Amino acid sequence: MGEGTFVDLLSFLEKHMPDDATRKIIKLAKRDEMRHVSYGLEHVKSAIAQNPNRINSLKATAYKRKEFMDEVSGESSLLLEALAILAGGSDAPNDYKKGFDLVEELKETMNTNRVKRLIDIGMDEELANDISKVHTPNFM
């Protein structure tokens, strides 16, 4: 889930980066991360195909991770502000508001894509939504 969410973040950064060189670096990093996500999805699909009860252990792991991460981190206001300024183009009030709206769209995209990936590995939609909701809000 984390690497898939990171791919979504890289797509957001690539779209809103003001310079070509950084966009190119982000594009290459995103390509590499997409390989990791594809490999992980296929590995998990195979494991679930061999033992469907593994979905229960994945669920338990997601909830344990959330409990741990809730203790050590949360959604970073500094990160959200930086992304909003980047996406909006400046820290002027109207630009910042536009950027913050784009960051909220990014968070929804991340959730939607996590759910899709979880369904793709064999989870039902309700469980996929539950697990996606407990994913930590710090883009990790």
Describe the structure.
The protein has 140 residues and is an all-alpha fold. The chain has one domain (2-134). Helices cover 82% and strands 0% of the residues. The chain has 6 helices and no strands. Helix 1 packs antiparallel against helix 2 (20-50) and helix 1 (2-16) packs antiparallel against helix 5. The longest helix is centred in the first third of the chain and has 31 residues, at 20-50. The model has no long low-confidence stretch (mean pLDDT 90).
Key terms for this structure?
0% strand; mainly alpha; globular; 6 helices; 140 residues; single chain; 82% helix
Give a short account of the largest sheet: none
Mean pLDDT rating: 90
Overall shape: globular
SS summary, helix count: 6
Radius of gyration: 17 Å
State the low-pLDDT regions, or none.
none
Number of strands: 0
**Helix proportion range:** over 70%
Write the topology of this structure.
Blueprint: H1 2-16, H2 20-50, H3 54-72, H4 77-88, H5 93-120, H6 125-134
Helix pairs in contact: 1-2, 1-4, 1-5, 4-5, 5-6
Gist of the model:
The chain is an all-alpha fold. Helix content is 82%, strand content 0%. It has 6 helices and no strands.
